[in-house]
Amino acid sequence: MDSLLVIGLIATAIGVVIGATGIGGVLLVPVLTLLLGIDVKRAIAAVLLSYLPSCIVAVTLYARRGSIPWREAKLVCLAALPTAWLGARAAQYAHPVVLEEIIGVLLIAGGLYSLRPSRMRETRALSAPLLLALGGATGLLAALTGAGGAFVLLPALLLLDTPVLPAIGLGMVIALPVAGLASVANFEAGLLDVWLAATLGVALALGIAIGTPIAHALPQALLRRVLGSVVLIAGAAMLVHTAYE
């Protein structure tokens, strides 16, 4: 019971970060495994399932504020459906280190880019083929590593000059098909700890409800710098982690 309380408090804090920046869920698996000693496969399965209720809350809150571009959301989610299933199935065979290194480099690139002074140029709509490619790659990599969809998608969107709030909204939306399909595969493999997932889901939802108004209250330039810093730190931590594996 005490351990679930600690997990809940940590997940609530991470949920605030997710709500405010779109990034943060990637910290859950390291916290559960390194600090609390939970088996990594059990941790990944529980974290992915916990994204379902928490991201429903996030998507609802961002949608009410008009921060989700639904055309783009439909395309990235459609592409993520088959690849998330394949990624979850392949996770038991794939070595995660190379994938983590690739994602770490992508995060650092996106973080550095977002920390640059914003260029005053017109934002252009992303093409359908590009959105499908982004969605497919996100579904595969997120399910393979146990990371949230935003962890993979957000840096790519920042590199493509997507405005910050819509980029965060898309990251929240794509986590739903990724978490759903991966959780089915993990359930079939007998890896799901329902109580752990429920604790994480409730705590994340609470934190996201707190963090979302923060994101919409901050000036966009400041939010971009905050998001870039979080992305950069996450990428560096990922690469440091792989160096010791």
Structure description:
- The protein is mainly α.
- It is 80% helix and 0% strand.
- Helix 1 (2-21) runs parallel beside helix 9 (194-217) and helix 6 crosses helix 8 (164-188).
- The longest helix is centred in the N-terminal third of the chain and has 25 residues, at 40-64.
- The chain is globular.
- The mean pLDDT is 81.
Compact summary:
With 245 residues, this protein is an all-alpha fold. The protein has ten helices and no strands.
Order of helices and strands: HHHHHHHHHH
Portion of residues in beta strands equals: under 5%
Query: Count of helices?
Result: 10
Q: Please, how many domains?
A: 1
| Major sheet attributes | none
What overall geometry do the principal axes of the alpha carbons give?
Answer: globular
The proportion of residues forming helix, as a percent range, comes to over 70%
SSE diagram, text form:
Blueprint: H1 2-21, H2 28-35, H3 40-64, H4 70-90, H5 96-115, H6 128-145, H7 149-159, H8 164-188, H9 194-217, H10 220-243
Helix pairs in contact: 1-9, 2-3, 3-8, 3-9, 4-6, 4-8, 5-7, 5-10, 6-7, 6-8, 7-8
List keywords for this structure.
245 residues; mainly alpha; 10 helices; 0% strand; globular
